[in-house]
From TrEMBL:
Residues 1-33 form the signal peptide. Keywords: Signal. InterPro entries: DUF1194, VWF_A, vWFA_dom_sf. SUPFAM superfamilies: vWA-like (SSF53300). Residues 37-227 form the VWFA domain. This is VWFA domain-containing protein. It comes from Pararhodobacter aggregans. Pfam families: DUF1194. The keyword Signal applies.
Length: 254
């Protein structure tokens, strides 16, 4: 009597079934990795009135609606967040990191940011504490290749006085800090100089807005510089930055 089929041997039907399952997986495009996680930290301290607050939020929203910025956000699969900061213990993450993969998502985020309620008012300016809270958010975006904090503001630190420590901590964790300094009319560039000397990390940069009315233009310029190579100054990989940290600490002992 002839022997029956070996149950351990794969049948043609099984092989064809496995192939049918595998083909869609093989044909599916690979998801692009997140290039940049960008946290926008907006000054809402007492020096910013309600009109100037609205200019800042609309400036961010309009930057996101810009064709070149939108294309760069989608190309880099950027994760974007927004926080508001003022004095000590006055920091609020208004928009947690949001992945941007489709034009509709960028449009929705722009509309959301443009109507964000103000989280704080009348406070002092604790730049260091703003950086500390921003740093904590990057645990959500560990897969993003570059981590960037943007601090925008119109004054220097007058509360908390942790800026030196928090800047060094951010740099040690592989986070680049850039600045958008908002200058008052006819005052020169004292805020720009403060940001250059005390806020940005090595490899970071400062863009100057000439009053709050210039915020939208400065925000667009800054985001394009961050997002579009070769304009972007990409930070060093996180596993190599510690090698240069000792020199940074020596030059910036605060």
């Amino acid at each position: 009597m002839p022997a029956g089929p070996d149950p351990r041997r794969p049948t043609l039907r099984r092989l064809l079934g496995a192939l049918a399952l595998a083909l869609p997986l093989a044909a599916a495009p690979q998801a692009r990795a997140c290039d940049i996680a960008l946290m926008l930290a907006v000054d809402v301290s007492g020096s910013v009135d309600s009109y100037e607050y609205a200019l800042q939020l609309q400036g961010i929203a309009n930057a996101l609606r810009d064709e070149d910025v939108r294309a760069a956000l989608l190309q880099g699969q950027v994760a974007l967040g927004v926080m508001q900061w003022s004095g000590a213990m006055e920091q609020t993450v208004s928009v947690p990191f949001t992945r941007l993969t489709e034009p509709a998502e960028v449009a929705q985020l722009a509309a959301r940011i443009g109507t964000l309620p103000r989280a704080h008012s009348g406070g002092n300016t604790a730049v260091g504490e703003a950086i500390a809270v921003a740093v904590e958010q990057f645990g959500q975006v560990r897969d993003c290749a570059h981590w960037v904090i943007d601090i925008s503001g119109d004054g220097d630190e007058n509360e908390g006085y942790t800026l030196g420590t928090e800047r060094r901590t951010a740099y040690a964790r592989g986070i680049t800090i850039n600045g958008l300094a908002i200058e008052a009319a006819g005052t020169g560039q004292p805020i720009t100089n403060f940001y250059r000397r005390n806020v940005v990390t090595p490899g970071g940069f400062v863009i100057t807005a000439h009053q709050h009315s210039d915020f939208a233009r400065a925000m667009r310029q800054k985001m394009l510089r961050e997002l579009i190579p070769p304009m972007a100054l990409a930070p060093a990989p996180r596993d190599t930055q510690l090698a240069s940290l000792s020199g940074f600490l020596h030059l910036h002992p605060r």
